[in-house]
Design brief:
heterodimer, A: 464 residues, mainly alpha, four-stranded antiparallel sheet, 69% helix, elongated, B: 435 residues, ABC transporter involved in vitamin B12 uptake, BtuC, Arc Repressor Mutant, subunit A, two-stranded antiparallel ribbon, 17 helices
């Protein structure tokens, strides 16, 4: 399967010396741009599969147009005529879906499936005719099923450019309407927007883009060009504007890569390579996407867990100091720092020594503790105020639970343990307000439960 | 058509068994609103076929079958996985996965075209026309291989669906309830996907993916329009599948000669035949069909108009007495707002039911039965007026229009409630007597 790398072809391609190559690459670029944009709206409107139905439904139109041309004495290969046929039967297919879902109790997906298979079957029947026709060769028609970017001519590219430009202009002009309908159709309807007409316009755009992409990507894979860049963009952003831009960029990248690879290597179907480029970009987005990618999400979770652990250690230091009193510890009045033994800390939650050391080293790097007197841990003044803040949040929540949720004082420690890390400043102010008389300014409330190693506090240590 | 031969019979029989096995599993896809999963799986098995072929080196059926089923299940699994982990819509996830797999398959086949005797076109259209030539001995007979395989798959589908009928039904209609009752909806889901994949793969070679998709979806949709309960739906879909197979082949060899061709693709024609049957069902299905809905609406409209006529005549007699001036039909119809055609139909309906009598010069009057029914309409109307005035506390001059609408929709039970609420009242808020 390995093929020697075609350096000469690559030079020819990158130099864009060849007029035909330029045409093909430009056409692919435009196709990718416009399908990414239209696809974004289509996916957000939860109509992802209509493109698949349009592309399958286009086949009878293409073949019928070919037959009419051949019978009339033409060469049957006028792309404009074939695409017009595709456009008409694609729109007919959508109209049929609409008629079925409105006039009978048939669900959307079933109506799509019926139209897809029956129209495609009709296309194959007509194709059966053309293959047995005496005049005219139907060989080119199959390229609509599997796609053939290389067969693109300059006139096709201009057609593509014109349609893509028109579709882009419509997308920009109706951006606000599309956004409203995509995110909250009910609200848009209630506000008096013509939701049905906006939907019809969007469907029309999908039909146009699908039809102009058929020749390059093929009707089975065309749907990928609309869906995949759009869902990939979703991994990188939460904003519609940037989603449309990213999806267009990804679509263009995939199309150009695919067309180039298909031109470089023999027997590489363009549609497949374009779709696989989309899929690769999708995989990258799924793994590394800034918003929803799996790796950044896992990283965020790990960071949260580490921060939680650090908070637990800091709070343990403070509570140890507070509980036993300044006398039991090496208090350095001059520096305001506090020393606590690492062994005592480890006992609080049965931390292993290695784990405790790791967390403490991280805290030391941030300047909350100093480890120069190991195995004694020195809480710096910065660490002190940090820890005090955490303990305060913890106890505020505990008192809140006791007073307002009527939780038993012996049970609040655990609940507060989870919430203290995520209490924002506004939340803390609100908690202070709900506990009147107990607090003034930055005063630290007392713990509602004993901090010693009681039965109730035993959960912190986990199973023995 | 005149030269129907044993070959044509075999083609139809093969199409029938394949169509029925597809229809059987397809019903559950339609019920689960996953119709397009059939489309996805039947495309996505291509890389399975290709990889199995490249690994085993020949078209031995067993590895190809295993590879394709694995690819089908992989589609279902990956779709579910990226749907949950990538947090996206199910059909978008499906679109990403099946196109990726199909693209891989297509690339593999085209790259290895020299050594591979796998034609991507064949995957789409199949070659049911040639299937009777490839036979296997079954007992004393020589059956076409495709027919034998189709029969086996049909048997598998019937047995599996029979065994897991309860689980399939419950998890298709109400997955939460199924989970709560301790069934495993996910396992049932993958079982169904496995059935779809097995059926699609077994049917591929002979009929191509178009017919598989059409038969997975169209008969199931027809079934849900024709019957209410699931056994009826399954039976109806099987009949539609059989008729599509027969009609498809007849069309494929019957219609092209009219235009001077020999024939055309049989599997394509079977899909078209299914489409024609669907349009028929869509139009004439009882209850859910377009015509049935239209007829139902028309009869409702006619009943309301007849009642309006009876009410108007009753009021006329009430006002002018039995011996008062005669009512002429055209004036009456115009007052109620009937067009000329409607007026003729309503008059015919009323006379056929013996509710109005007719004397010279278009003069109409209520018959005895007509008076009785008119009294009921007027009674309902005035009872509603009393109710709306006293219980809902609408002003007396606002109750007429609402009662005009409600009088046509009053059931016996409602009438009894109204009578109870209106005890003692003998006149309506306008002072008219309640009959």
């Amino acid at each position: 399967m390995m093929v020697e790398f075609p350096w000469d072809d690559l030079r020819r391609l990158t130099g864009l010396a060849d007029y035909n190559t330029r045409v093909v690459l430009l056409g692919s670029l435009l196709l990718g741009l416009v399908s990414g944009a239209v696809g974004s709206f289509m996916v957000l409107r939860k109509r992802a599969m209509i493109s698949d139905v349009v592309s399958h439904a286009a086949l009878p139109g293409i073949v019928a147009a070919f037959m009419v041309l051949t019978v009339l004495g033409g060469d049957g290969k006028s792309w404009l005529a074939l695409l017009t046929g595709a456009l008409i039967s694609g729109l007919l297919g959508m109209a049929a879906v609409h008629a079925i879902t409105t006039h009978a109790r048939v669900k959307q997906d079933a109506a799509l499936g019926v139209v897809l298979s029956v129209f495609f079957g009709a296309g194959v029947v007509l194709l059966g005719f053309t293959q047995r026709m005496k005049s005219g060769s139907s060989a080119g028609l199959e390229s609509f099923i599997y796609g053939k970017t290389a067969s693109m001519l300059a006139s096709d590219a201009w057609l593509l450019a014109g349609s893509a430009l028109a579709a882009t202009v419509i997308c920009l002009a109706f951006f606000k309407e599309f956004r409203l309908v995509c995110f909250d159709a009910e609200f848009a309807r209630a506000q008096g927007w013509p939701v049905r007409r906006v939907d019809a316009l969007l469907t029309g755009l999908v039909v146009v883009v699908t039809v102009i992409g058929l020749q390059a990507v093929g009707l089975i894979l065309m749907i990928a060009l609309l869906i995949t860049p759009a869902v990939t963009a979703r991994f990188w952003t939460d904003r519609l504007g940037s989603m449309v831009i990213i999806a267009s960029g990804l679509g263009a990248l995939a199309c150009v890569t695919g067309a180039a690879l298909s031109a470089l290597y023999p027997r590489v179907p363009a549609g497949s390579v374009i779709v696989l480029s989309c899929s690769t970009l999708f995989l990258i987005g799924l793994l590394f996407g800034r918003r929803r990618g799996l790796v950044p999400e896992a990283w965020r979770r790990i960071r949260l867990a580490a921060r939680t652990e650090r908070h637990h250690v800091l709070r343990a230091v403070y509570e140890q100091w507070e509980q036993r009193g300044v006398q039991g510890f090496h208090a350095h009045a001059g520096t305001g720092s506090v020393l606590v033994s690492a062994g005592d800390l480890a006992a609080v939650r049965r931390w292993s020594e290695a784990r405790l050391q790791r967390v403490l080293r991280e805290a030391a790097a941030d300047g909350d503790v100093e480890l120069d007197a190991w195995p004694l841990v020195r809480l710096t003044s910065r660490g002190m105020s940090h820890a005090r803040q955490l303990v305060r949040n913890h106890r505020l929540w505990e008192w809140y639970l006791i007073q307002h949720a009527e939780v038993d004082p012996h049970h609040v420690d655990r609940d507060a343990d989870e919430i203290e890390h995520v209490l924002g400043a506004a939340m803390v102010r609100e908690l202070e307000a709900t506990l009147p008389g107990r607090l003034s300014g930055a005063e630290l409330p007392s713990s509602p439960h004993p901090l010693t190693d009681t039965e109730e506090a035993g959960w912190r240590k986990g199973p023995a | 058509m005149s030269d129907w031969s044993m070959i044509d019979t075999w083609i139809v029989l093969t199409g029938m068994v394949i169509a029925m096995s597809c229809a059987l599993v397809g019903n559950f896809l339609v019920i689960r609103r996953m119709s397009l999963m059939g489309d996805a799986i039947s495309h996505a098995v291509l890389p399975g076929l290709a990889v199995a072929f490249l690994l085993s080196g020949d078209r031995h059926p067993l590895p190809m079958f295993a590879g394709a089923v694995a690819a089908g299940l992989l589609t279902a699994f990956l779709t579910e996985w990226i749907r949950t982990n990538g947090r996206m819509e199910a059909d978008a996830a499906m679109g990403v996965i099946f196109t990726t797999l199909f693209a891989i398959g297509l690339l593999l086949i085209v790259r290895a075209a020299d050594s591979v005797d796998l034609d991507p076109g064949c995957v789409l259209y199949g070659a049911i026309e040639l299937s009777p030539l490839d036979t296997v001995p079954v007992g004393p007979w020589e059956w076409p291989r495709a027919f034998a395989i189709g029969l086996v798959v049909l048997a598998i589908n019937v047995v599996v669906i029979g065994l897991f009928y309860k689980e399939l039904v419950l998890s298709s209609f109400d997955p939460e309830a199924a989970a709560a009752l301790g069934f495993k909806p996910r396992r049932i889901y993958y079982l169904l996907m496995a059935l779809v994949a097995v059926t699609a793969v077994a049917s591929f070679e002979s009929v191509g993916s178009i017919l598989v998709i059409a038969m997975l979806i169209v008969p199931g949709v027809c079934g849900t329009l024709l019957a209410r309960r699931l056994p009826g739906v399954l039976a109806a879909s099987a009949v539609v599948a059989m008729l599509s197979a027969i009609g498809g082949h007849v069309m494929a060899i019957g219609i092209p000669p009219i235009f001077g061709f020999v024939d055309t693709s049989t599997s394509g024609s079977m899909a078209v035949a299914a489409g024609i049957l669907f349009v028929g069902v869509f139009l004439v299905a009882p209850e859910n069909g377009v015509l049935a809905r239209w007829a139902h609406q028309r009869s409702l409209r006619d009943r309301i108009r007849c009642e309006d006529v009876l009410g108007a005549l009753y009021r006329w007699h009430e006002e002018h007495g039995e011996k008062g001036p005669v009512v002429r039909w055209p004036e009456l119809a115009a007052r109620i707002g009937l067009g000329p055609t409607q007026a003729r139909r309503i008059r015919r309906l009323l006379r056929r039911n013996g509710l109005i009598g007719y004397v010279a010069d278009d003069a109409v009057h209520l018959t005895g039965e007509g008076k009785r029914q008119a009294a009921i309409v007027i009674r309902d109307h005035r009872l509603w007026e009393v109710y709306l005035h006293h219980q809902v506390q609408l002003p007396a001059d606002h109750v007429h229009a609402t009662s005009e609408a409600l009088e046509h929709l009053t059931s016996d039970g409602m009438r009894r409630r109204l009578e109870r609420d209106a005890t003692g009242a003998s006149v309506d808020p306008h002072g008219k007597v309640i009959p």
